[in-house]
Amino acid sequence: DWFQRAISLNPNYARAWVNLGNVFKQKGDLTKSLNAYQKALTLDPNDANIWYHLGLAHSAQDDLEKAEHSYQNGLLHQSSHLGCLINLGVLMSNKGRFDEALEHLKKSLALSPQDPNIHNNIAITLKRTKNADLADEHYRKALALAPNRVDIIINRCELLEQHNRLDTLDQFLDIVSERN
Asked: Is the pLDDT of residue 180 over 70?
């Protein structure tokens, strides 16, 4: 309601349209969310953050082509936009475009080396490319940064099991058990 009032006072304020889009997205109304982001883009087409939010909304609708297009446009306007880099990397990994995924994820890691999510996403992508050793290295880095993240623990366990590293898996599970 506040954002709609702000827009009524200044309908050319792109940030208010983005915030309104975020409210609609949180409420699950992706159509209104997309419309608000599109309006924001007409006001400020060079804002990478608007493209990022548009990409998130398209991803929520499972429109991965439009999401990819949005993230790429965001990167055209700000090549270091962390959200666009990470989400484009994950999207590329899910599409099987692993080299492109790793390129985007490594750029995001250079910007935020202490982010366990980035290490986890790199590890997932490397696992898909059958590079178990390097994937495990990134899982270990992610867990050093976020030792109680259950999703990362499960991912590492699956990797170790799939590659028949049962001794390492047992040791790892012992460590996890001791922590809890």
From this structure: no
What is the rounded distance in angstroms from the CA atom of residue 118 to the CA atom of residue 85? 10
pLDDT digit string, tens, across residues 145-164: 999 898 999 999 999 999 88
Question: CA-to-CA distance for 86 and 80, rounded, in angstroms?
Answer: 10
CA distance 161 to 95: 24
pTM for the full model? Answer: 0.89
Q: How far apart are CA 120 and CA 142, in angstroms?
A: 6
Q: CB-based contacts of 105: which residues, under 8 Å, 6+ apart?
A: 85, 86, 89, 90, 93, 118, 121, 122, 125
**Strands annotated E in 31-174:** none
Q: What number of other Cβ atoms are within 10 A of residue 179's Cβ? A: 9
Q: Is 13 exposed, middle or buried (0-12, 13-18, 19+ CB in 10 A)?
A: middle
pLDDT at 9 over 90: no
Q: Are 120 and 155 in contact (CB under 8 A)?
A: yes
Residue 3 has pLDDT above 80, yes or no: no
What whole-number distance in Å separates Cα of residue 46 and Cα of residue 41? 8
